[in-house]
Every structure is written in structure tokens, then in C-alpha cells.
Amino acid sequence: MKPEELLELLKHALGGLAKEVTVRKGYVEVLVDADSVVPVANKLKELGFDHVKSVTATDYPKESKIRVTYHVSSYLREDLAKPILGLSVDLPRDNPVMESLTGVWRSSEFQEREVYEFFGVTFRGHPDLRPLLLIPELAERRVLRKDFVVKEESIYEGVPHRYQ
Amino acid sequence: MVLETILYLIAYPPLWQVLILGFVGALLVAMVAIWFERKAAARVQRRIGPYWASPRLGGFMIIVADMIRYVTQQVIIPTTVDKIAFLLTPVAVLVVTILPLAFIPLSPHELYWPVASMEYSLLIALALTTLPPLLTVVLGWASSNKFSVIGSLRESYVITAYELVAVLAILAPAASTLSFNIVYIVEAQQPVKWLAILNPLAFLAAFLAVLMSTSAFPFEIPESEHEVVAGPYTEYSGILYALNMGGGYIRRFIYAIIIALVFLGGWAPYTPGLDPFTGFIIPSLIVLVKASIVVLVMSFLRAVYGRYRLDQALDAAWRLALPLALLGLGWSIILAYMNLI
Amino acid sequence: MDVKAVDKVYVGNINVAARRARELLLGKLKLGDVIDWATTFSLWPVHLLTSCCGAEFAATWSPRFDAEQYGALPWVAPRQTNFIIIEGTVTRKMACALRITYEQMPHPKFVIAMGACALDGGLFYNSYNIVRPWEVVPVDVYIPGCPPPPEAVARAIIDLRRKIREKKLASRWLIEGWRHDRDPVKPADDVCKWWRP
Amino acid sequence: MPARVSLKSLKRRGGLFEGIKSNIQALAVGVKYFIDPQRSTLLYPKEYIEHRPGYRGFIVFIKDKCISCAACARICPSAAMKMVRVTEVDPKHPDKPRQKQYPVINYQRCIFCGYCVDICPTEALYHTPFQDVVYESLADMFLTLEAFQLEPGRPSVSEGSPVVYEVDEERGLIKRRR
User: Fold this and answer.
1) What fold, for D53-150?
2) What does the alpha-carbon distance between residue D49 and residue D175 come to, in Å, rounded to a whole number?
3) Which chain D residues contact residue B211 at CB under 8 A?
4) What is the pLDDT of residues B207-217, one digit of tens each?
């Protein structure tokens, strides 16, 4: 199935639930509000998208929003598995809270935990929302947000005196 | 009276033969088997294997180095284990493993092997070889570690499946020669009527069952590395682990001696004389060489096969090896009926 | 029991007897050299793979650079080994695993740090999630490179062999009970603070 | 249409005859390699691989060519290369000591990517074709300016002889002595 055909199919199936459905360079993106993410996910699952490939988030500090993207795909229907489909939600940056999609796709559980620890997005209804890769005190600092500063060394610093 | 009894016990020849053959000989054979296993696997995989410790001996001293390292290493006793069982079971495994040697005659003369005239020697030796796996279960249970317990559980599955096959297949020669006496079975195979040739089904079943029940490589299920860390031996370190590891190889060697006697004709083409050299040393050496070849062939299989899963091994046991053993038993009865042996 | 008798074996002091036996065996009979020799040819690394250096670790034991010729056999369980190769980046969570693995191994034990990440962080020198392994466990030999080639790993094993035999590391553990040059930098509570079993 | 999962059952491959045949084949391959192993193993301390030129090994610095542009330190992705300030006395003007900057390298961090060698405008840095050198202390790995100008000692050369690996059409990788 070509991305354009998938776009038509999605527009027909989702109706007014999605805020925006776009296609760009073979990538189909469904942008929804935080309220309607669970119904849209259920609709997608009915279409045949049965698993989540990755859950990721992007920080936009100027627009003060965090966009959480679910890349969904299908094991059972080969034609649906070919184009890339992203389900995106825009959340406010100061208090990002959204419904968890673990009820719809169980495979998103670990990746939602990862988004939680790196970006601080809280997923309501997640069965076990703990930091996954980082130690707890580091996870509170939301290390992948843009305002987390990683210190760089200059080319003159860092030469210990005993080596000079 | 008491002193005489003690002296008699000390000078009792089978005791010495068990000690010398059991400890020194079996240890040597275990070392050669481990060395051959590593070296043959390396050869088949186009590697060199152990080399730098002694290039002229083909790296054999690396096995000695491993042993010395294990003996001098720290022994860790975790706080959660059952201490008495944890410390005593490896020793018990070794002792029980060597016990069957007391009932296996390597020469037909009563003078050198008092068990030679004993009826049912094959039956007793076989019964004693089935004891060590039970102690392996104790070993895992004493460690009180989940991997050890899972490993012990696998071991018990494997015992249930394969000890039956081993006993049935090794008893097939007894059925065809109408005797449980090992010396009688060997003499019946003179000169080349070996039961491995006359009854290959039972021989194959016995070989498979020995591989499986001593957890040799294609069936290394209890201590499979990638699933349960080291099986029942997970918590064992230093000399205790060396005892466990050596025990497995010695057990395989004892099974190999039994197979060499009852299937490969023992001292067969050779007719033992009466004096110590021709009556004791040469027949024993012939049997030991045959048994060593069986052990080395078992070690070679490591280089060829991958490890089977537990369900595959049990499937092979109940669907392949058990019918094979029963067929071998039936074939041996036919052999006895037709007076072929 | 008077004071002089404390040091006599025949009084029944088992600690004194053990010490005497140790001194006799390791001091006069040169058994220590044998133990050191045995340890150098029996370095079994436990497989603790933390990142991409594991590929070169695998290549070191592959047919072309067969490291089994030095007597080193990769093993899975820490209890039966005496040697650990840190294969790459050690994150904060992995540091605890590394420390636990190290403490599970019986003495005498040795550590090789492999690759730039295991020395000073390498590319991730300023990352928020990196621990220098030499803070967690005492390291014997360092291998630079990203990742180091298999020959370098073989060279590290040879270098460790020379170090063990020159400094008598294995037999000194038997005499002294603890290698005092091997005190780890960080206490275990610091490394595994976050970990609640 | 909700997605439905259907279970497929695999057929057992082959029968008893097929099993016996494949086992015998496996054993035959094992015995064949056991008799003729065709090894190409490197006996490391006795032999060492002579890499071809272009191998990115340890980096050596030529002080006379350096123009102190610091491009190597700037491009270093892991900040392994640092500039040190050195006071130099020009023989023509002995009364006017000059401050110059030269790079030093930290092998604790170096990832041997070769960016510094590539970017150097005067070719003051070059790679040696080996990397099998190990250290016993962290302090040795931070080279001083003097140590950076020398090629690091290669212990393999004193212990063994060089070999090269070539690809043979029939036997695969083979070892050839120089």
C-alpha cells in the first residue's frame, strides 16, 4: 500500500477524531489531541495496526510543547507494514500528561517508561511507571530535554598539571 | 582379631585397585578427556586450542594449571546455603561415582579380582551408577539458588528419561548370554563375537543413554550455560566445583568401562594367562584402552553437535532411545534363542 | 595457657597450625611459583558484555586470534572464574552489576578494562550516565582503542600473565589473605545506592 | 476488521531416514575437519600481523612541522587532544622567549578515528600501523609532548615475526609469513 492510499484510508476511517493527517516523504503522520488519543489508537488497531515499533518524544522549548510520537506497524497485514505511520500528540511542556496506550498496544509499555524518564511525560493508566534505564535521581533531571546542559571541555582545559 | 580384620581390610586387593584405578587412573582419564574435548573442538573449528603452557605436549599442561588454580582458589560459601549438605555432597558424589569400580572385574581370575566369580556383578555395578545423579539433585537443592534448583529439576527429568534406557540397553547382553556375570559375558564374546557388532541397536541406545545421563556435550542440559547459569553447580567455587566437574568425567569413564566390557568384548581377542602379567595387567590395559576410546569418541561429539533443548532431549529419550533399547533387548533375546552367542 | 604456648602447634591452636603450614608450603617449597604459573595459564574471563567491545572480545576467541591458546576460556558464571574483562561503556546501572559480578568471584581475581569507554568515557566523556570503571573495581591492565583490536586483547592477557608472575599476585593472596593494592575506590553502597532487591 | 492472531503448526522435517542421514553428514564434516583442520590461527606472541599502510594505529607528532593551529584539538570528537603552552627560545633571538602551543594526546579517550591526522594542514601527525600496546597505569596513557613525538614501543616486534593475511579462493583466509 502506498502512503497516499494509506492517507485516504486513514482520513476515511478516523473522520473528525484526528486533528491533522499529513503525508511527507513517505511518512504518514496522524496528529491528535491529548483527549482523543485512545479512541484513535483503538481505530488504528481495528484497521490492523497491531504493535508499536517505537515511542519517542521531541522537545520544542520555543513553542513550549512536547510531541510524543508512536510509530505503529503491523505484523499480520504486509501491505500495512510497508509505509511508516506516526501517531503524534502535542502536550504542554510544563505539565505533560497523557493517557497511556498500554491498554491498546501492550508493546508500548517499556518505551513509555523510557519517555517518562527522559522527558518527564506522565502516562495515566500505565501499569508500572518507573525509570527504566537511568538511576532514579538522574531520571528526575529529565536529561533529554533541551534545557539540560551537557558540559563541554575546551581544548586547553583538562590537561592535569602532573602531565604538563 | 580386630587387628587382623583391619589388616585384611587394608590389604584387600579390590580396595587397592579401586583406589589406584578409581582415583589416579580415573583422574588421568578425566584430564585427558577434558584436554581432548577442548583440543578436538578447536581442531574442528580451525583453531589451535590450548597451546602456550606446553607447546610440545599440545597444551596438556593447561588442564593441570586449571586444576591447580581450582585447588588453590578461594572457596565461597554463601550464607543462604545448607552448609553441611553444600560441603559434603561434592565429596559424596565423587565417592559414590567411584564405587561401581569395586564390582567391575577387569580380568577373569579370582586371584586378582575377587568379584570375578560373583554372579549379578553387572546388575550391582549398574545399580550403583544410577546413584550420583540423585546426589546432583541434592547439590542443587543445598545451594538454595533458583538457577541451581532449576538445574536440579532438569537433572531429575533427565534421570527419569535416560537411566531406564541405559539400564535396559546395558542389560541386553545379559539377556543374550543368560548371565549377569561380567566375566561370563566377556568370555562369551571371545574372540570377535562382540555384541556391538551382533547387536548394534542396543549398543547405540546404550551410547546415547550414557551421553545423556552423564550430561555429555550434545545433551548438556542440567548445566546449560545460556539458560541456567551453571545449573546445579552455580554456587560452587574452587575445589568444590573441581570435584563436581571431575565427577562427571569419571562417571562417564566408568560407564565406558562397562560398555567396553559388555559390548566391545572386554579383553576379547586376547586370552588371559595365569601369571600377574598376562592374567592381570594386559587384560586390564586392553579394557582401559577400549574404554578410553569410547570416552574420547564421546568427547569428540562436542565439536559436532549443538546442545539440545530439554524438550527435544526428552522427546528423543521417550520416542527414539527407549524403543531402540527395547528393540535391542528383543534382538538379544533372539540371539540367545538362536544360539548365536 | 601461658603466652609462649600460644605460638606452639602442639597446644592445639588451629590458626597457628594453619599459618605454619602455609609458611612451610609457600615459603620453602616454592609452591607459590607453581600457583602463580597455574593461575597465569588459567585465566577464565567472565562474559560481562556492556557495549560494542563485545564484538572484538568475540573476535579474540574466534579461529583467527584464538585466545584459548593462552588457556583463557570464556565462562558464564562468576563463581568458577577468576578474571573479568570490562567490555566497554559502564553506565550507572551497569556499574552496580559490574561490582556485584566482581564481588561474586573468588580470590585471586583480576580485571582488564577494554576500550576508551572503560578508561575515561571515550566519546561519552561528558555524559551524565557514565561511570569510570576504575572507580568501581580495581583494574590491572588498560587497553586503549575504540574498540581495541583482538591482538591488543591478546597482548593484555600476556601482559597480565607477566604481571602475575613478576609480582606473585596469586600466591601473595594465599599468604596475605587480601591484596592491599586492590582496594576499590568507591564503597559498594555508593555504587549500588539506587538498587533495592 | 480487528487483527486476529492465528497459530501455525510446523510440520516435522523429514523422517527417521532423514534424521539418520543428517547426523551422519554432520559427523562426517566433523571428522573431515578433525583430520585436516586448515587452520589460520595467529600464534600471537611468536607472530604478529603486519598491517598495511593506512591502518589507523597510534598517532605520532612531528614538532617541526606543527604550526600551532589547534585544528586537531578542535576536531577531536572525544576531546582527547589538548593544547599545551610551551615557552620556546628562538636561537636567532635568544632574549625574546616565545609562547607556543603544541598538541598532546590522551590515550584514555582517543578513539583512533584519525580526524586529527586528516585535518592537519602540514601533515604534522601520522598513524603508526599498529595498536597492540597496553598500559598498566592511567598516568602512562596521557602522553607528554616528548613522548608524543616518539613512536610507542611495540613489544610484539621484539618477540615475534611478521605475518600477513590473504584471502584464498578455495581455502578462505590464509596466513602467510613474510
Assistant:
1) Alpha-Beta Plaits (3.30.70)
2) 9
3) none
4) 888 888 887 76
